[in-house]
Write a structure and sequence with these properties.
Shape: elongated
Number of strands: 2
Oligomer: single chain
Strand content: under 5%
Helix content: 55-70%
CATH superfamily: Transmembrane di-heme cytochromes, Chain C
CATH topology: Fumarate Reductase Cytochrome B subunit
Bound molecules: protoporphyrin IX containing FE
Largest sheet: 2 strands, antiparallel
Length: 219
């Protein structure tokens, strides 16, 4: 076995902070929605607003990091190994088959992860941010009922925001399950904590060939 560095420090900080903020926004958001009772409505609104601003700041840093390091290329969808992964997740995973490819610092995401994460980044998160900001500022300043933005009412915005929240919950549940499907039950989790993942030496040369091929296709 050999240890390979997969996730850099900012990436891990961003991942865990984003996870914590989204979970907190989910809890406070669904209290605002009326589904759960935990902090009380007023506190839930106040906490939700603070966490939302923190998430926006984190997103700004994450965008900067992805652009300046070129890491955004990792998310570009590809058809390479797509069939193999669909087959793996439908049947192989339940028979203990090996992953079709191995993770590498140059290629961390499998083709299905690329599609799902890109969808989150270009669709779900922007929907949450835009609808959340419209929700926050649709009457701004709040006193005198001044209508800051000319958007009839909150119905559509609230619906978009809540649908996005459900999409994030579905992603979260699938994500927790998939975390446990690495080479061992905890290997993915440990990698996102320490940055390092244990990889077996026998698959090393194969992995390097795959990574080189994937990098060539990215370029
Ligand atoms: C930058 C991101 C976000 C912003 C700016 C934002 C902002 C807001 C605002 C202003 C409200 C209304 C609060 C009120 O009634 O006064 C709200 C409600 C809500 N938020 Fe967020 N939010 C964000 C992210 C999230 C995330 C990530 C989730 C879920 C994981 C979430 C779930 C909800 C839910 C479920 C509601 C209640 C919707 C309803 O019943 O109408 N929000 N959000």
């Amino acid at each position: 076995m050999r240890r390979e560095y997969i996730y850099r420090s900012f990436e891990r900080f961003w991942h865990w902070t984003q996870a914590a903020l989204i979970m907190f926004l989910g809890v406070t958001g669904f209290e605002i929605h009326g589904s759960i009772h935990f902090f009380g409505f007023r506190q839930a609104v106040a906490y939700h607003n603070v966490a939302a601003v923190a998430l926006l700041i984190l997103i700004a840093f994450a965008v900067f990091w992805h652009v300046t390091t070129g890491e955004w290329r990792q998310y570009l969808p590809t058809k390479q190994n797509l069939r193999a992964y669909v087959k793996y997740y439908i049947t192989g995973i339940f028979r203990g088959a090996p992953h079709p490819t191995k993770k590498h610092v140059l290629s961390k995401l499998n083709p299905l992860q690329k599609i799902v994460y890109t969808g989150l980044k270009v669709l779900v998160i922007p929907v949450m941010v835009v609808s959340g900001l419209l929700y926050m500022f649709y009457r701004f300043p709040q006193q005198y009922e001044v209508v800051g933005l000319n958007i009839g009412g909150l119905k559509t915005i609230a619906l978009m925001h809540t649908l996005g929240a459900f999409a994030l919950i579905c992603f979260f549940i699938a994500h927790i399950y998939l975390i446990t499907t690495g080479s061992t039950v905890t290997s993915n989790l440990k990698a996102m904590i320490s940055g390092y993942e244990d990889v077996s030496d026998e698959s090393e040369s194969k992995r390097h060939t795959e990574a080189a091929q994937q990098q060539t296709s990215i370029n």
